[in-house]
Specification:
The complex is a heterodimer of chains A (about 120) and B (about 425). By secondary structure, chain A is an alpha/beta fold. Chain A is built from five helices and five strands. Chain A has a domain at about 50-120: 3-Layer(aba) Sandwich (Rossmann fold), CATH 3.40.50.2300. Chain B starts with 5 loop residues before the first helix and ends in a 27-residue tail after the last strand. The chains are: A alpha/beta (about 120), B alpha+beta (about 425).
Chain lengths: ~120, ~425
């Protein structure tokens, strides 16, 4: 059964490119353009990995990450954050992100990181 | 107390201009010709008494031997050494200026340029960090760039891409390249706009205002104040400087309304430069009288003001009373005593470090304000007027700031000086 990735990204063309890449790699990808929808999707169809943009309309990526880590149902989910600014990384790390990709990232990098994260055992709750 | 070594060069120039021999001048001054020869070649520093006698022997004013462009250059280089570390041979700075004035001027100019660039970097950094428009614009550019990169890579690296996907990604690429171009154009337009590049490093806003005031000899006639000076204010490079100058002019106009030029000049002639007596005479605050004394022509005054943090908010220098351009001033300044005890007068006869032949009379006063009423914060403002010496009373030794002050036994020192320690005269 294909691994499931939830992509939370408001830029439709970035989302489309990532979705294409991961689908071609045999993964199932669902997409949420903002936080509220993403939190509902997380509970309804729990993914194996979350790719989360930092700058989103409404809830920020950090707020979504905090909500994920506070939820017993999904707090051990591996989360990759997409950031545009280097200094956001420290805040994301404190909030519990597992991996960071700084924009503009390369397709090869993001694919390699996703594969690596999905091959690791889920961390303990 | 030794005087500047530069005195030797000036002494020699003045003696040769007068057509006198070393032996004659030495005899008139009561020193040996060989000692005068050493002094003239900057190999011996001279005491105030000897310089007085030499000035008399040459029939010139003593100040002619101890002041000038070189002295300012020496101060600039000392300040440069203070900023740059302690490796420079600060104790030989006067000799350096005397022997290599061109190189010395170049170093001072490079130091000034370096500071301007540092301020530019700081301003740009600050702007990058705090300007929400810039931050948002850069984020949008990066997002567009990310989309372009990811899409272009798919097109380039997927040989078996289905035609409908290829079409879709080509369309996305076009959209994102358009967005990228528009974003870059908007960003360049923003940087080129009113708060543009020229603002970023010519001078700190306070220095810009002070340079403008200096260009007017620190005097703004009441008639100019009444006109608002908007056109001249508009010529300042930065928005912050224009705002500061506008506030300065507005306050000076309020002061002028309380103490109009003509009647203030009459009172000054009658009472003298005593800000407390002048304030009593006009029924106003000593701070107003001090600002008026600092802002009219004909009175050789310096004036500094500070806020509750001790930060100098206005710096009009007086001859022989150098003011720090950066960092904090000497903690012994009566300005700070006044700041700690508002509505109390502090007056002292003072002598700056390195100014062995010059003293000043300073008068300091502070007041408090509560612009937001009883429950709002208390704001303090202090001012110190710097007047010529009147020759009365004990002398309080001061400095400009610790880094360029050589007073070795100062109890208020907060950091080491880059200068060799000297005794307190």
């Amino acid at each position: 059964m294909a691994k499931h990735v939830l992509l939370i990204e408001d830029e439709p063309n970035i989302a489309e490119a990532i979705r294409f890449l991961l689908t071609r790699d045999g993964l199932r990808v669902s997409h949420a353009p903002e936080g509220d929808t993403a939190l509902v999707m997380l509970r309804q169809d729990p993914p194996d990995l979350v790719i989360l943009d930092h700058m989103l309309p409404g809830m920020s990526g950090l707020e979504i990450l905090t909500a994920v880590r506070a939820d017993p149902q999904c707090r051990d989910l591996p989360v990759m954050m997409l950031t545009a600014r280097g200094r956001d990384r420290e805040m994301a790390e404190e909030a519990g992100a597992d991996c960071f990709m700084t924009k503009p990232f390369s397709n090869a990098e993001i694919l390699a990181e996703v594969r690596a994260m999905l091959s690791q055992p889920r961390r303990a709750v | 107390m030794p005087l500047s070594a530069l005195t030797g060069t000036k002494l020699r120039d003045r003696r040769l201009a007068a057509g006198l021999r070393q032996a004659d001048v030495a005899a008139r001054a009561g020193i040996s010709a060989s000692y005068l020869n050493l002094i003239e070649h900057n190999r011996r520093k001279v005491t105030p008494e000897v310089i007085e006698r030499l000035a008399d022997a040459l029939q010139i004013d003593r100040g002619a031997l101890t002041e000038g462009r070189e002295a300012a250059l020496v101060e600039d280089l000392r300040a440069a050494a203070a900023r740059g570390g302690t490796d420079a041979e600060v104790e030989r700075v006067e000799d350096f200026v005397d022997r290599f004035p061109g190189w010395a001027a170049l170093i001072a100019a490079l130091d000034a340029r370096g500071r301007a660039l540092e301020r530019a970097v700081e301003a740009l950094n600050d702007r990058m960090t705090h300007d929400p428009h810039l931050s948002q614009s850069l984020h949008e550019l990066l997002s567009s760039l990310s989309a372009v990169r990811a899409t272009a890579a798919i097109l380039a690296e997927t040989p078996d891409l289905e035609p409908e996907w290829a079409l879709r990604f080509h369309r996305n690429l076009h959209q994102d390249s358009e967005r990228l171009a528009a974003g870059a154009e908007a960003l360049v337009g923003f940087l080129d706009a009113g708060q543009g590049i020229e603002e970023q490093g010519i001078a700190a806003p306070q220095e810009e205002v002070e340079d403008w005031l200096r260009s007017r000899s620190w005097v703004i006639p009441d008639a100019d104040l009444a006109g608002g000076l908007e056109e001249e204010i508009g010529h300042l490079a930065s928005t912050a400087a224009r705002s500061l100058l506008r506030a300065h002019v507005a306050r000076a106009r309020d002061d002028a309304a309380l103490l109009p030029e003509a009647v203030f000049a009459e009172a000054l002639a009658e009472i003298g430069p005593d800000p407390v007596a002048l304030a009593e005479h006009f029924g106003t605050s000593p701070l107003v009288a001090m600002r008026r004394l600092g802002g009219i022509g004909g009175v050789p005054t310096g004036l500094v003001t500070c806020d509750g943090s001790g930060t100098l908010t206005f710096r009009k220098p007086a001859t022989g009373f150098p003011l720090p351009r950066f960092g904090s001033a000497c903690p012994l300044w009566p300005l700070y005593a006044a700041l700690g005890r508002p509505m109390q007068l502090f007056e002292a006869r003072v002598q700056m470090a390195g100014q062995s032949d010059r003293r000043h009379r300073v008068i300091a006063w502070a007041e408090t304000r509560h612009p937001q009423g009883l429950r709002g914060p208390e704001l303090r403002e202090a001012a110190m007027l710097i007047l010529p010496d009147d020759g009365a009373g004990p002398v309080l030794p001061l400095g400009s700031s610790c880094r360029v002050c050589a007073r070795g036994d100062c109890p208020a020192r907060r950091e080491p000086s880059i200068l060799a320690a000297e005794g307190i005269a």
